[in-house]
């Protein structure tokens, strides 16, 4: 199956962002697939306290992809860039938004 510009860009972002991390000096706190504790809580529409570090660790790639699409790719109008033959610019814009 042909991969969309979003799928290709997401693969790059996920490689850059890495997997689960929970460094004490990181103000974002627990992070998985580049999605912070607070961002996951906001996405799920619950207070930050309702999301545990285990919830962040269990974040699937699929849910992360939905977050990236809805919160970064679509608002950044990256599709409009990509469909004009500017996939690299769409990726750069997406990366900047993230």
Structural summary, described in words:
The model has no long low-confidence stretch (mean pLDDT 92). It contains six helices and two strands; from the N terminus they run αββααααα. It is mainly alpha-helical. A two-stranded antiparallel ribbon has the order 1-2. The chain has helices at residues 5-17, 37-44, 53-57, 61-73, 78-82, 87-97, and strands at 31-32, 35-36. The two termini are 26 Å apart.
Can you summarize the main beta sheet?
A: 2 strands, antiparallel
Structural class by secondary-structure content = mainly alpha
The averaged pLDDT comes out at 92
What fraction strand?
under 5%
- Cα gyration radius (Å): 14 Å
Percent in helix: 55-70%
State the distance separating the first and last CA atoms: 26 Å
What is the element string, with H for helices and E for strands? HEEHHHHH
* Order of strands, widest sheet: 1-2
Name the poorly predicted regions. none
Number of DSSP helices? 6
Categorize the overall geometry. Answer: elongated
- Tell how many strands the DSSP assignment holds: 2
Features of this protein?
single chain; 98 residues; mainly alpha; two-stranded antiparallel ribbon; 6 helices; elongated
Short description:
The protein is mainly alpha-helical and 98 residues long.
Task: Please write out the topology.
Elements: H1 5-17, E1 31-32, E2 35-36, H2 37-44, H3 53-57, H4 61-73, H5 78-82, H6 87-97
Antiparallel strand pairs: 1-2
